[in-house]
Amino acid sequence: MLLARLVMTVIAFVFAASLAFAHGPDAPQHKIAKLGKFTFEGGGSIPNLRISYVTHGKLNAAKDNAILVLHGFGGNHHGYDGMIGAGKALDTDKYFIISPDQLGNAQVGFEHSSSPTNSGMKMNFPAYNHRDMVNAQHKLVTEALGIKHLLAVTGISLGGAHSVQFAVSHPGFMDGIIPIVGGALVGNDVRLWNTQIQAVIESCGAWQGGDYSQNSTDCAGAAMWTMVHNFFTAAWWEANMPTKEAFDQFRKDWWGVYLGVQDMRDLYYMSKSYERSSVAATPGFNGDLSAALRAIKAKTMFVYSPGDRFFVPKHFEDQAKLISGARAVAIDSSAGHLICCGVDPQAYWVMGEAIRGFLGELTAQKTAAAQ
Questions:
Q1: Once rounded to an integer, what is the mean pLDDT over residues 13-41?
Q2: Is 160 helix (H, G, I), strand (E, B) or coil?
Q3: In the chain, domain spans
Q4: Which member of 4, 37, 142, 145 has the lowest number of beta carbons within 10 Å of its beta carbon?
Q5: How many Å apart are CA 135 and CA 249, to the nearest integer?
Q6: At what angle do helices 217-225 and 264-273 cross, to 10 degrees?
Q7: Is the dihedral of CA 68, 197, 107, 344 positive or negative?
Q8: Banded pLDDT at 19 (limits 50, 70, 90)
Q9: Could you count the other beta carbons within 10 Å of the beta carbon of residue 13?
Q10: What three-state secondary structure class fits 52?
Q11: Which residues contact 190 (CB under 8 A, 6 or more apart)?
C-alpha cells in the first residue's frame, strides 16, 4: 500500500509540474502571438490566429540552435519541462527551446491558443486537422519569432505525430525530428478512444449540441477517463493498483491535473481532428504514406515503448525503414505509453540520454557542413 501511494504521489507531482497553469517568478513567462488571418486546409478561416507559448534559453546570433517541442493530447506547453534546463537533455545553455500550446488546446484555467471556445465561435469554428495544427506552429516560429530553420522538432504522443507531419509538410525546415511515443501510424486503440471521447461528450446533458454556455469539466473529464487504461501496461496496473483505495486516489490525483481541466467543446474538436489527419493525405502524396515518409529529409530518431498500446511498436520500425537513415529506439518499461512523461524515472533518464546524444549528432553534422 505504501509503495502504491508513493507511486501515486510521484505521478501526481509529475503531472502537476507538466500541466501547471501558473508561471512562477523564475519561470519563462507565458506569451501570446497574434498571427493574423489563418485559413484551414478543409475550408474556413479565423481572423486572428493566437498561439500561446513559452521559450527557454537564448537564440544564438546565427539563429540555428532552436528546438520546437510539442505536447501531447490534452496537455499544454509544460509537457516537456522535465527535460528542459541547464545540463538537461534539452540544454538551455546550448539550445533555444520553443514550447507552444497546440491550436485548439482544450485545457481551461489559462489563456491559450485559438480554440472553438476561446474564439467565441463555438461550433462554427472551422474543422481542423493535424496539418492545420502544425502550420499554426510553423507560423509562430517563422513569423512571430523570425526563425527560418530549426535544429530539431520533437514531441510526445500527439506531439510525436506532429513531428513527423512537420517533416513531411515542411521538408528542409529542420535538421532533425525526434518523435516520442507518437508517429504517422496509430493503433486501433487510438481510433477507439477518440470514438469513446466523442460518445461520452455527446451523451452528456450539458453538451447541448456543443452550443453550451457553461462548460462541464465533469463531462470532459469522464470522456478523457476512457483512454487512461491504455496509458500503462497491464503489468504496471497490476503492480501499482493493489487496492480500490489506491485506484480511487489515482483517479482523484489525475482528475485535478489532467482529466478534469478540459473544455468539452475544444476536447471534442481535438478528438475529431484525428479523423482527417492522415499523413498520407498531405497534399502532393495522393494518399501514399510510403511516399510521404520517404520524402522526409530530416534526420530522424523515433523513441517508443514496446508496451505502448496507442502507437503500436511495430509501426515505429516500419516507419524508420521508409525514412532515409532513420532509427527507432525502444525503451522497455511497464510505464508503456507514459515513458514520455517521467512516470518511470529510469526510462525517462534513458529517453533523455537518447535525445541528448541525437542533438549532439545534429550539432556535429551542422558544424561539419559549415567547414
A1: 74
A2: helix
A3: 2-370
A4: 37
A5: 39
A6: 30
A7: negative
A8: very low
A9: 13
A10: strand
A11: 274, 310, 311
C-alpha triplet 190, 196, 202: angle, nearest 5°: 140
Residue 71 has pLDDT above 50, yes or no: yes
Amino acid 14: pLDDT: 47
For 300-314, give the DSSP string.
EEEEE-TT-SSS-HH
249: left (phi over 0), alpha (psi -120 to 50) or beta: alpha
Question: CA 348 to CA 366: how far, in whole Å?
Answer: 27
Question: What is the distance between the alpha carbons of residues 65 and 57, in angstroms, rounded to a whole number?
Answer: 10
Q: How far apart are CA 227 and CA 135, in angstroms?
A: 27
And the C-alpha cell for 125? 469554428
Angle at 123 between CA 120 and CA 128, to 5 degrees: 100
The CA-based diameter of the chain, rounded to the nearest angstrom, is 65
In eight-state DSSP terms, residue 43 is S
CA distance 197 to 285: 30
Instruction: Identify each DSSP E strand in the chain by its residue range.
Output: 31-34, 38-39, 45-46, 50-56, 66-70, 84-85, 90-91, 96-100, 150-156, 174-180, 299-304, 327-330
Reply yes or no on whether the pLDDT at 24 is more than 80: no
**What are the DSSP calls for 82-128, one per residue?**
GGEETTSSEETTT-EEEEEPPTT--B-SS--S--TTTTS-GGGSPP-
DSSP state of 2: H
Judge whether 189 and 169 are in contact, CB under 8 Å: no
pLDDT in tens, 308-345: 988 989 999 999 999 999 999 999 999 999 999 999 99
Q: Return the number of other C-beta atoms located less than 10 Å from residue 29's C-beta.
A: 9
The correct answer on CATH 3.40.50.1820 for the domain covering 2-370 is yes
In 3-state terms the chain splits into helix, strand, coil percentages (rounded to 5) of 45, 15, 40
- Cα separation, 231 vs 307, whole angstroms: 10
* DSSP secondary structure, 181-194, as one string: S--S---HHHHHHH
pTM greater than 0.90 (yes/no):
yes
